[in-house]
Write a structure and sequence with these properties.
globular, mainly alpha, 99 residues, binds heme C, 3 helices, Cytochrome Bc1 Complex, Chain D, domain 2
């Protein structure tokens, strides 16, 4: 199983988006831009590139419970050791505001 090859790619993501086909965050909002990249890299494969659900439930427009993301729940993997609080909050903000 492939490990997440994230490393420094968040900060190096300028321009040629690692973001794939997920909806674009407003460029002027650094938190949402970070959240877009976190979502694209870690969440879209299960929750769908628009957050409308897939292997995981629909998230689009929902208030995200960051504790579920941090600790995991049933089929939802724990991200607490992969993503820091800033990344988790950014992903939650992106899901609520952009998707
Ligand atoms: C391996 C597939 C997978 C990945 C990757 C994944 N999820 Fe999930 N997620 C799930 C599943 C399955 C559930 C349903 C868990 C349950 O039944 O309790 C879920 C549940 C959730 C929930 C709770 C939804 C609710 O209605 O209570 C949130 C919030 C969530 N995911 C956010 C995220 C975020 C943010 C990411 C990226 C950092 C992510 N998920 C990545 C599969 C995934």
């Amino acid at each position: 199983m492939a490990l997440f090859a994230l490393g420094g790619s968040l900060l190096g993501a300028c321009g040629s988006g690692s973001a794939g086909t997920v909806p674009k965050a407003p460029a002027g909002d650094p938190e949402l831009v970070l959240g877009q990249s976190v979502f694209a890299d870690h969440c879209a494969r299960c929750h769908g590139s628009s957050g409308r659900g897939g292997a995981g439930p629909r998230l689009a427009g929902e208030e995200i419970d960051v504790d579920v993301v941090r600790s995991g729940r049933r089929g939802m993997p724990a991200f607490g050791s992969k993503l820091d609080d800033q990344q988790l909050e950014a992903a939650a903000a992106y899901v609520a505001a952009v998707l």
